[in-house]
Amino acid sequence: MPAVRGDGMRGLAVFISDIRNCKSKEAEIKRINKELANIRSKFKGDKTLDGYQKKKYVCKLLFIFLLGHDIDFGHMEAVNLLSSNKYSEKQIGYLFISVLVNTNSELIKLIIQSIKNDLASRNPIHVNLALQCIANIGSREMAEAFGNDIPKLLVSGDTMDVVKQSAALCLLRLFRTSQEIIPGGEWTSRIIHLLNDQHMGVVTAATSLIDALVKKNPEEYKGCVSLAVSRLSRIVTASYTDLQDYTYYFVPAPWLSVKLLRLLQNYTPPAEDPDGWLIFSEANLLVRACNQLGQFLSNRETNLRYLALESMCHLATSEFSHEAVKKHQEVVILSMKMEKDVSVRQQAVDLLYAMCDKSNAEEIVQEMLNYLETADYSIRGGDGIKSRYSCEKYATDYTWYVDVILNLIRIAGDYVSEEVWYRVIQIVINRDEVQGYAAKTVFEALQAPACHENMVKVGGYILGEFGNLIAGDQRSSPAVQFQLLHSKYHLCSPMTRALLLSTYIKFINLFPEIRTQVQDVFKQDSNLRSADAELQQRASEYLQLSIIASSDVLATVLEEMPAFPERESSILAVLKKKKPGRVPENDIKENKSPTPVTNHNNEVNNTSIGSADLLGLSTPPTSHPNSGNTGVLLDVLGDIYNKPNDSTNNTWFVDPKKSTLLWSDEQAIKLSVQMKPVEPVLEAGAQIQQMINAECVDDYTDCPSIVVSFHFTNGPQKITIKLPLTINKFFEPTEMNGESFFARWKNLGSTNQQRSQKIFKASTPMDLQAARTKIMGFGMQLLDGIDPNPDNFVCAGIIHMRTQQVGCLLRLEPNKNAQVSPSYVIFGVFRMMRELKMYRLTVRSSKESVSAELCDLLSEQF
């Protein structure tokens, strides 16, 4: 409501005071009815009411309406106020009309005529009141009535800035109601050039309007791109005095900058043109931007470092700024290794991949591999993928490529997809110069005591094809190669064993001198009578082939694999299509290259080997027969592990409404968990990832369970899984010096309610390094050099909850000299003694329940 100043509208002030002093609802209604009767009589009987009195009574009606009461009269008097030349009277008239007049009212024609008169006025205040009323009503009738007048006001050189600003916002409101209101042709250029206006308010309003117009017709308004970029550049480089009225916390025009960036986002190119996102090519500006972002890489603010890395990923794709990005390579590598926040480390990995080229590929790939050995679970998959494709994309020496891939499999075998070893085999088979080196390298890799199964697959395939190239050395003789591979045989899955059996039959062709040894393996009951039908069949058929077939037949059947057709790696194609940065694992698995297999009738089947994972669940792979030999790996005599079971429906139908959480009453109040819905159908060979966001409302003692309901093999299935959402997941590590720690330790221990202590035996012999690792994984900050006893561990952290933040201190004191009764474990006639030590764990916090729970949680790990 308009302010009541001085003695003006004293009657309104008294009426409002009376309403506020009413003791009950009935008293309020009685007072309002009395006032309505008085106003109605004034409007009907008093023909001498002046503008002030009409304004006063209309204000009272408006106040009564805002209290929630219906008003069915006074509209005509409000319309009459529009013709007044006094601002206060015209303002109240427009306010009443904007709030109470229905668009279907018979008065709408009178209102429109009054608004037209005000739009034509030379008084900018009257024009603004009319524009605000049009925008507030925003009906189609308003759009049709003023569709020609408002655009003229907007682009006219005689219009004042404050009116232009209102006209742009009014036009935006009407455009959302009726998109035909905006004229085309020459009007397009004139509207776009509002981005060059000197008045920042006009530019801000015009940017919002142009953004809406671009979404409807981006081609017609594409001329706004260069003007938006130019305006954005001037804002960024402006001084404080230039934009003093539009500076917020020393940031010039932040809201306008965001609007301009959103406008430019409308012209982001499709995924197949990743370099085209930079809609301008001012090299100097890009280099300056890169240098500025480089300074942010060392900023103390985590979010700023993340944003700098993310932005530099985009700059690395431009030919103008790629070299400037490379100058920050050492800092980015340091971020990948030393950054505490896992998302920032991931972004650093993405940037390293984006800045990679032939000049620095070897160094970057090596750094990625070194980091991979200690990287987080969430990074290993993506880092391995980027390492593998960086080395393939920029490899000039394929011996280096083989070294990198085998090292990648050694370090991160669990995170390396099938596609990786398919591709390395394709590269080796197609290049004669690298075959001997690959055989020698993989032979050496297989000698490691712990050898990943993917390495066994690569070794089996390559040695089966090219083992003869290194057989002249006694250290890698045929018998040694065979014994080395077979030493891994019983540790592998049936699929890998089947591949090794194919390698063995190839050995008989390459090395006839070890025929008897190989045949003995085929004859073993574990193969001939294997419960796995494929192993049994391969063993029996290969055995008969080695006995019956002549050397010429064997040489023909088991000849060396022909070269594969040259083709781009499927995952490399995916990386090209995606924006710079991380490549979702889903996209990689869904675009796997097909793996051709041969059945016993020599028909070639095309099989997509993939996996699907929904909270730890996997769907079986499926095949599509007779699709042609277009894959990357052809295995001898086929692989039935990828053939479909015709009687089984290999599709999961997931009910997103039945992924539900099991709560106790306590959990429902103290832990807020939200889950994003998932697609209802999970196809074979695909995977779904369900994001779960959790917020700690208050401290709690138990973690929730999730129930996953789905249909598979034509029947309902249900799996219950505990979510690892214990209270320590909400820790923020906190640095603290010794003086602060012990001062707070003493204060928190002033009452037993703030302290929990547990003395317990170690479950294994004392290992301080292992204890250190467990404590660091718990989520608190391990404070080194704080405790006088170097064997003691002290930690500090803050638990973030919606209702409060709880500071926690922890102290773990190992007692190596504790007198503990020996524990005996009997195996047959032997008795073994384990030496046990004792720990004392103390947790102090401002809440008793948190202390006790954290003490229990951590002691369980020991």
Characterization of the model:
This protein is an alpha+beta fold and 862 residues long. Strand 3 and strand 4 form a beta hairpin. The relative contact order is 0.03. The protein is elongated and about 125 Å long. Among the domains are: 101 residues, no CATH class; 73 residues, no CATH class; 71 residues, Sandwich (Immunoglobulin-like); 133 residues, 2-Layer Sandwich (TATA-Binding Protein), CATH 3.30.310. The two termini are 68 Å apart. The chain contains 37 helices and 19 strands. Strands 12, 13, 14, 15, 16 and 19 form a six-stranded antiparallel sheet that branches. A four-stranded antiparallel sheet has the order 8-6-10-11, with no helix packed on it. It is found in: Endomembrane system; Membrane, Coated pit.
Question: Strands, helices and their partners?
Answer:
Layout: H1 10-20, H2 25-45, H3 51-66, H4 75-81, H5 87-100, H6 108-119, H7 124-137, H8 140-146, H9 149-155, H10 161-177, H11 186-192, H12 200-216, H13 224-237, E1 247-248, E2 251-252, H14 254-265, H15 283-296, H16 302-315, H17 322-326, H18 329-338, H19 342-355, H20 361-372, H21 377-394, H22 398-412, H23 418-430, H24 432-445, H25 453-466, H26 478-486, H27 494-510, H28 515-523, H29 525-528, H30 533-548, H31 551-557, H32 570-577, H33 585-590, E3 595-598, E4 604-607, E5 623-624, E6 652-662, H34 665-670, E7 671-675, E8 681-682, E9 692-696, E10 705-712, E11 715-722, E12 731-733, H35 738-748, E13 755-761, H36 768-778, E14 781-782, E15 793-800, E16 805-815, E17 823-827, E18 830-834, E19 838-845, H37 848-860
Antiparallel strand pairs: 1-2, 3-4, 4-5, 6-8, 6-10, 7-9, 10-11, 12-15, 13-19, 14-15, 15-16, 16-19, 17-18
Helix pairs in contact: 1-2, 1-3, 2-3, 3-4, 3-5, 4-5, 5-7, 6-7, 7-10, 9-10, 10-12, 12-14, 13-14, 15-16, 16-19, 18-19, 19-21, 20-21, 20-22, 21-22, 22-23, 22-24, 23-25, 24-25, 25-27, 27-30, 28-30
